Amino acid sequence: MYELKVLAADKGSVSLSTQCNVVVRVEDVNDNQPEIDVTSLSSSIREDAAPGTVVALMGVADLDSGVNGQVVCSLSGDSPFDLKPSPDGQSYSLITKDYLDKENSHMYNIKITARDLGSPSLSSTKLIQ
């Protein structure tokens, strides 16, 4: 927001003047995509790890303001993992939602998508192995 004071004066022999305030509000445009920052990662998890075991911690941010800067994360595909958002919505925990089976799958490629609530919506992805 910008606030300007404008003064106008004439050049008559008896100069008269007046002033007014002009307020300019800048509206945010959704021009920044969300960012995912993996702050902690366990690269190997035991197959007997209990459901709810934290695999990774991630921070999410968007430089836009208002709804343009609000971010929601999701996982692609069907996997034994889930995302748990923090109460403030600015970070997520990647957790196991079931027991893992190394004989069934010895490695997972987990695709996380962060999407903002702006219009049009912007998104970014992060791949965790």
From TrEMBL:
Keywords: Calcium, Glycoprotein, Membrane, Repeat, Transmembrane, Transmembrane helix
Protein name in the entry: Cadherin domain-containing protein
Short name of one Pfam family: Cadherin
Signal sequence region: none
InterPro entries: Cadherin-like_dom, Cadherin-like_sf, Cadherin_CS, Protocadherin/Cadherin-CA
PROSITE patterns, per the entry: CADHERIN_1, CADHERIN_2
Localization terms from the record: Membrane
